[in-house]
Amino acid sequence: MGDCEVCGAKKAVKAAIIEGVRLEVCVDCARLGKVIENPAVAIQKPKTGGVSGSAAHRRDKKAALESSREEIVEDYAEILRKQISRIGISYSQLARSIDENESYLKRVVHGDTLPTLKLAKKLEKALNVKITEIPEEK
Ligand SMILES: [Zn+2]
């Protein structure tokens, strides 16, 4: 664009229709007519970048499964009874040492109640026995 075609004093920055004629005009002279809004300038479309899919993080649960596979051995009660009589510890003493209810402990030792893995671990430690195992794959 050159100089304003109306006043000739300023730089033409817009195209405007003035009295039916398309002229390149300055900002001031553009007010005299109807401004043609920059048809040449392409409107920049905002980039609509697709949302990248979040990477799927899969945690390996093998290690967790391995420890939870432990089971109480079948003859846990017999093992416990034998060890308790060998050591000569009373149920109340044992119950106190592992912070468990005595009557509950008795039921476990008599084979009436299957101990939880947590209790089994405590008994193993307190009595130095092994009453849990990881079952073999069949
Ligand atoms: Zn002008």
Could you give a quick summary of the protein structure above?
This protein is α+β, with helices and mostly antiparallel strands and 138 residues long. 36% of the residues lie in helices and 12% in strands.
How would you describe what is shown here?
The strands form two sheets. The chain has a three-stranded antiparallel β-sheet. The model is unreliable at 52-59 (pLDDT under 50). It has two domains: 1-38, no CATH class; 65-133, Orthogonal Bundle (434 Repressor (Amino-terminal Domain)). The protein has 138 residues and is an alpha+beta fold. The chain has helices at 27-30, 62-68, 76-87, 91-97, 102-109, 117-127; strands at residues 14-18, 21-25, 34-36, 71-72, 132-133. The chain binds zinc ion (ZN). The site of zinc ion has 8 residues, from α1. Residues 4, 6-7, 10, 25-26, 28-29 line the site of zinc ion.
